[in-house]
Each structure stands twice: as structure tokens, then as C-alpha cells.
Amino acid sequence: MTLPVPDSLVLLGCWLRQAGYAFTTVTPTTHGRVNVRRGAEVASTLRDVFGWSRPFPADLLPTAPMVWLRDSGLVAQRGELLHSKVRFSTLGGQLYAHSAYPTTAADAVFFGPDTYRFAALIEAELARQPLPDGTRILDIGCGAGPGGIAAALASPAGRTELLLADINPQALEFARANAALAGLPAVRFQQSDLYEALGDGFDLIVANPPYLLDAGERTYRHGGGPLGSGLSLRIVREGLARLAPGGRLVLYTGAPVVDGQDAFGQEAQALLRQAGCPFSYREIDPDVFGEELDAPAYRQAERIAAVALVATRPLVLGGPAGPAP
Q1: What is the enclosing helix (H) or strand (E) of 187?
Q2: Cα-based distances in Å from 174 to 23, 24, 158, 182, 257
Q3: CA 142, CA 171: separation in Å to the nearest integer?
Q4: C-alpha radius of gyration, the chain, whole number
Q5: Are 33 and 155 members of one domain?
């Protein structure tokens, strides 16, 4: 019998955890540089197989993991060698399954340095202002689910409700497995184009949307709009009404800077002021995905910054507001 993909991922994750597996996922550029080094042609360790996505001989893995991979279609044949279609990364003591390198497929599920910064932003915000018991959390465009899972793990145990939503069914398969690996029972999953199929009244919305202009318009990468900021602006604009009074939006995204001006930051902050929402906005990293500046779409941009926006819905939307203290 063929195993459902989430079940296979959970079995693989539990086995890797027992084996002491750990891997920090790097940028695609760094990954490519490491994998072309002499001696990296064929995998010889679990980190090579499930971290560096290197081809491996069938006898490298025990029988049970090979059965889970094959029965769920998570392994591909490359000549005499095999290639895992899944990677596993460690973050905050948890193990996350996501797409193998390179993430070229239209439905690939990305995980990388942005993910680590996103989770750290959420954890810092919830340490600054903890969530109460009974909290409702939404991770919009959840991908593999690390943002929502990190938020739930940092919240009071018991009645916290987590909704992981994404337009990509493949992302939801990974998210289901990762929530199970994190031991979170009260999790719901919803395929949705942003907020389209979702309710409201959330105490916390977290988001790490695609923020680049991608020629192939891959779901995990293409943000649309002005220089890739389209989805990020929609998440802010449409998300305010989805928050419960006093609820927070925590957004990690990229902001292209042209002639010293951050157009996304300016537009998002103007929107929040008009809605009367206290907010904070800052750069986390001044220079990410520098290789994108070679693309024609970014010919006028001088850098892409990773930014953090935290906004709070007031009791009544509307009226002037400014940066939170």
C-alpha cells in the first residue's frame, strides 16, 4: 500500500531525529557552490542525502526509510543513483521537511535563511508581548509551516489554535507533516489564495510571502506588483480586517530600495497610519538576494533589504496612528 506523503515524511523525520540528524539550510547560491566541490558528487551521509540533496546509492539507507521514500514517490532514479525529493532542516530544535535542492519546480516549497530570520522575528515579538491562552494564529502563505509552528510553540499550551494556509497543495503536505513532527495537535490546514477561503478574528497573523520578481512566476518566489512587493502589500491591506481587535500582524518580507527609497515600506506605513494601526518597521538585513540585481527587472534597484513589520489592530479601525513606541 502506498503511504500518504505526510505520513511518510513524519516517519522519515522521526527516524532522522533518532539518528541525530541536523542540517542548516543555506541560500541556493551557497548550496550550489558547496555541491560543486570535489568529493560532493555522491552522498555518503544522511546530511548529504537529506540536506545537501546529493545523489546516493540505494544501500546507503536502511530498508525502512527506502520503503517510505519509494512508496510515497519521494525518491527519483538518476542512472544508478537515487535522489531524495525532500530535504529536512533543523530550526529551533524542530525538524522541517521541504522541497529538495534545486527548488526549480513551480510548486516547490522553499526553506532557507529567510525562514530562520522569520522564525526569530516571531519568537522575539512573542517574547516581548506574549499571547494569551485561547489564541487564534494564522500563518498565511505558510509554505512548510515554520512561522506558524514557531508561533504556536511560543504560545501557551492547551487552547492555542493554529491555521496553516497556502495556495500550494504541496506546501500543505509538508506543513501537515511538520506540525505532526512538532507535536502540535490543534492545527487546521486550508488551501487558499491569501485570505480568500479564511475567516477572521485572528489574534496573530504571521507571513513570510514571496517578494521577488520571478520570470517563471513560481509560487514560492514570485511576489508580483512593483518589484515583487505586491503580495506583501495585499497581506497588510487585507489582513487588518482579519485580525481581532488588539490582534497583531507580523510580516517578514523583502523591500527593494531604489535611489535610497523603500517604496514598499512607505506605502505599507501610509496604509497603517490611515487605518489607525500602531506599528513598527525596521530592516533586519540591508542586503539579501544581491544576485537578483543582475536581472532586468531590478536594473534600477540598489539593494533588496529584509524587513520586519509588526502592526496591531486597534479596537476600532480608522483614524490617524503612527509607529508604535
Answers
A1: strand 187-191
A2: 17, 17, 24, 12, 33
A3: 7
A4: 20
A5: no
Identify whether 319 is part of a domain: no
Q: Is residue 104, in this structure, part of any structural domain at all?
A: no
Last residue of a domain, one of 68, 99, 130: 99
Helix-helix angle 169-181:146-153, to 10 degrees: 30
Q: Does 320 fall in a domain?
A: no
131 and 81 assigned to the same domain: no
Residue 106 falls inside a structural domain: no
From first to last of the 325 residues of the chain, give the pLDDT tens digit: 456 788 999 999 999 999 999 999 999 999 999 999 999 999 999 999 999 999 999 999 999 999 999 999 999 998 999 999 999 999 999 999 999 999 989 899 999 999 999 999 999 999 999 998 889 999 999 999 999 999 999 987 667 899 999 999 999 999 999 999 999 988 999 999 999 989 999 999 999 999 988 877 777 788 888 899 999 999 999 999 999 999 999 999 999 999 999 999 999 999 999 999 999 999 999 999 999 999 998 999 999 999 999 999 998 766 554 455 4
Distance CA 104, CA 140 (A): 22
Helices (H), 77-164: 113-128, 146-153
User: Which structural domain range is residue 28 located in?
Assistant: 5-99
Please tell me the distance from the alpha carbon of residue 305 to that of residue 319, in angstroms, as a whole number: 30
Write the DSSP symbol of residue 212: B
**What residues form DSSP beta bridges with 194?**
none
Take residue 108 and report the three cell numbers written for it: 516547490
Rounded Cα distance between 100 and 110, Å, is 9
Asked if residue 47 lies in contact with residue 111, where contact means CB atoms within 8 angstroms, the answer is no
Q: Do 179 and 131 belong together in one domain? A: yes
Scanning 110-207, the segments in alpha helix (DSSP H) are 113-128, 146-153, 169-181
Number of domains forming the structure of the chain: 2
pTM of the model: 0.94
